[in-house]
Every structure is written in C-alpha cells, then in structure tokens.
Amino acid sequence: xxxxxxxxxxxxxxxxxxxxxxxxxxxxxxxxxxxxxxxxxxxxxxxxxxxxxxxxxxxxxxxxxxxxxxxxxxxxxxxxxxxxxxxxxxxxxxxxxxxxxxxxxxxxxxxxxxxxxxxxxxxxxxxxxxxxxxxxxxxxxxxxxxxxxxxxxxxxxxxxxxxxxxxxxxxxxxxxxxxxxxxxxxxxxxxxxxxxxxxxxxxxxxxxxxxxxxxxxxxxxxxxxxxxxxxx
Length: 232
Fold this sequence. Notes:
With 232 residues, the chain is mainly α. The protein has helices spanning 2-9, 17-46, 59-77, 83-111, 117-142, 147-152, 178-191, 202-231; strands at residues 160-161, 198-199. Strands 1-2 form a two-stranded antiparallel ribbon.
C-alpha cells in the first residue's frame, strides 16, 4: 500500500494540455522577437553601399517579408503551422540571409582598395552588426532543435550552456530568449571566442567559428585600411 501511494504521489512526466499550451505561447512570443531581428537585418541591408550588394537594396527585405508571411498569419490567426513547416521556412530564410552576408563581406574585400574611408567605415560597421544579427538568429533557431522543442524539453542545455543552466536549483525556471542569443552572438563577434556561454555540440562550435571568422575579416580589413589611410 505504501509503495502504491508513493507512486501515485509522484509527478507525471507527461506534458499536460495546459503546460503544452503554455509552452506554445511562450515559444510564439520568442518568435516575435526573432522576426523583428530578421526585419532589422533587411533594413541594415538597405543602407549598404551599392558596390557591396547584388541587385536592388530592397530585395532582401522583400524576400524576408514574403517568407515571414506564413509566420505572421499563423501567429495572428492562431492557426499554427506544423513545426516542420515553420522550421523549414526559418532555415531557408537564414540560409538566404547568411549568403547575403557572405557576399557582402566578399565584396567588401574586393572593393577595399577603391572605397573611401567614410564609405568603408560605414559598410564595415553595418556588416559587423549584420553578422551579429544573422548568427543570433542561427543560435536561436538551432539550439535544442528550435524554440518550440526547447520549451517542451524544459529548457535543458542542448547546444549551448548558459550560466543560468549550470545550476539546477537556483534557475530551474530560467528561459533563454532571443536577447540571450543576441548577447551570445555579440560577445562571440567581439571577443572572437566564447565568454559566459559555452557551445556543447559540433554544430554550435562550427557556427561560432564561422561568426568569428566573418567578424575577424571585417575588423582586420577595417584596421588595415585605417592604417593605410593614416600612413598616406
């Protein structure tokens, strides 16, 4: 009898409909902030010099809006898309944005001897911020299989270990949001290495390496050009 009572008193590990709905709402709230980050990258692209872009400057923003429409309609009407469909759209969009960033950095390298100091400085700063936004979105989307799976898994450390996740007693209810991934991308782009949040998987380490390389290219080229200008 005592064993039976103890088993009945143990909490069930299966998610109840209430907790699932709560997780889904929190996941969708995080999606809104990520969508704003995507729009910010498209707006940054508008201000890049014409020599650093392919096609019209508004093209990336239009592509983002088109691919974001299913998200927005789903969030507003509460007719939620399947997780696989949402994740596929997100990865396609991130692939396009990342390709745009890589092209911009490549064109920056090619135009380095020809651009004026002020134009080069503005382009480098915009690309550096662009780099931070792009990889913040990657970290947000890939960590733990995406925001929805992170919510359903109880925010256990998966691809990244945040300081709040290192202790199970003090921060059991702590939830990483898009701003946390934005801070992670910012520190990785400035320090060129992990700071307080550590990558745990190969894909997380690979993404941080790519971000550091992009940031290093921008910073080194900018510094070299600045020295060249001062020397002349």
